[in-house]
Amino acid sequence: MWSHVAFEHPATFDTLAMDPDKKQEIVNDLINFSTSKDYYAKIGKAWKRGYLLFGPAGTGKSTMIAAMANLLKYDVYDLELTTVKDNTELRKLLIDTSSKSIIVIEDIDCSLDLTGQRKKKKDKEEDDDKKKDEEKDPAEEQMKKMEQENKNSQVTLSGLLNFIDGLWSACGGERIIVFTTNYVEKLDPALIRRGRMDKQIEMSYCSFEAFKVLAKNYLDINSQDLFAEVGRLMEETKMTPADVAENLMPK
Ligand SMILES: Nc1ncnc2c1ncn2[C@@H]1O[C@H](COP(=O)(O)OP(=O)(O)OP(=O)(O)O)[C@@H](O)[C@H]1O
């Protein structure tokens, strides 16, 4: 079901531009997770950890995932939810991952109508209430039933969460699941509740600290007269690390 491509992304935590304290915290968290087999066994929980990476495009969410994989030497599985037929298929796909893996679901806000599904259900209940006393057309009822069955055959938020919550306990191995989004505010709060996403990481516009990492990577410069001015401008502007990096590339 998965097609295999050798993972050879060069990004590491050394080349990742972000606040050094925040970066160190994430590295510590990952190492702590990967060396905690006994702890998870002791508390009787699946050895898994969920990360939510959020922030504007070009702030390094994909780069961060590559750095995670390179640090832990895990396989990366890119899961395109919109192409998964139903919860059964989702289950099969996830069981089929290797025992040291990072499962990535990018742009979660676009993959599933996470907020919509709940709203639709509520709207439907209201509609049904209104109709309670009205005569019900059997043909219409049948159509509704079919529509509902069709809906049930798709990947749902609850299918996804159930999987994250439970199934891995049966599989063994260490699994990291990473969700990314450019619009954290659009997500269903149930998805980002603690316990489901263990760590939420905001990827933000390029700070001066992040700029220094990029200057070192791209130009081999640690310090320069213009740095003070760049630092001031970085505070004033909202530039993504991707934009900064592009400007540091030879033209
Ligand atoms: N924090 C960063 N550190 C180092 N390089 C970065 C960083 N952010 C972006 N880049 C550079 O910009 C390119 C695009 O960034 P990336 O794809 O990681 O961003 P993204 O947040 O995943 O964007 P999108 O939301 O569009 O997927 C990367 O290949 C990398 O070269």
From TrEMBL:
Compositionally biased spans, kind Basic and acidic residues: 129-150
Domain annotation AAA+ ATPase: ranges: 47-207
UniProt KW Amino-acid biosynthesis keyword: no
A GO MF term: ATP hydrolysis activity
Pfam families attached to this UniProt entry: AAA, AAA_lid_At3g28540
Cofactor(s) of this protein: Mg(2+)
Keywords on record: ATP-binding, Magnesium, Nucleotide-binding
Reaction catalysis annotation: ATP + H2O = ADP + phosphate + H(+)
Chain positions covered by the region annotation Disordered: 119-151
Superkingdom of origin: Eukaryota
Family the UniProt entry places it in: Belongs to the AAA ATPase family. BCS1 subfamily.
Name recorded for this polypeptide: AAA+ ATPase domain-containing protein
